[in-house]
Design brief:
Radius of gyration: 16 Å
Structural class: mainly alpha
Order of helices and strands: HHHHH
Number of strands: 0
Number of helices: 5
Distance between the termini: 19 Å
Largest sheet: none
Length: 128
């Protein structure tokens, strides 16, 4: 059960890392080349891409001994859910973004499922 969660988290962590590196390097032009955006929006987008890289690194730190890092994982999950709520509010106010952003929102809002999986691992009695 633990190994399965580690594999799923390791694979899922590659998604935000890939988009974060692309966002950091190309800014909003990489996300939507046709969009006219201000320097301030591009600046914020690149900053948030950097934050996503940190979230990935924190996740990688926790994965090897996942059962010892429930609090860290809960904080990462909270950050993802809050970001997913932001995406949902944006879709509600302005309409859907790219398909990748919609998929990201679903993953972010669904991340508590992975935290519940970790809770089952943490709560499982260990053999004496």
């Amino acid at each position: 059960m633990k190994l399965g969660l580690q594999i799923v988290l390791g694979l899922f962590s590659l998604i935000p890392l890939a988009f974060a590196v692309m966002g950091l390097m190309s800014g909003m032009a990489g996300a939507d080349p046709a969009a006219a955006v201000s320097a301030a929006v591009d600046n914020q987008y690149r900053y948030m891409s950097g934050v996503y890289i940190l979230v990935t690194l924190l996740l990688w730190y926790a994965i090897p001994n996942i059962e010892r890092h429930f609090t860290l994982m809960a904080l990462i999950c909270a950050a993802l859910v809050i970001g997913g709520i932001g995406r949902f509010l944006s879709q509600t106010a302005l309409g859907p973004g790219t398909p990748q952003q919609s998929a990201g929102m679903l993953i972010e809002l669904g991340s508590p499922i992975l935290l519940a999986w970790l809770w089952l691992i943490v709560r499982k009695p260990r053999a004496q």
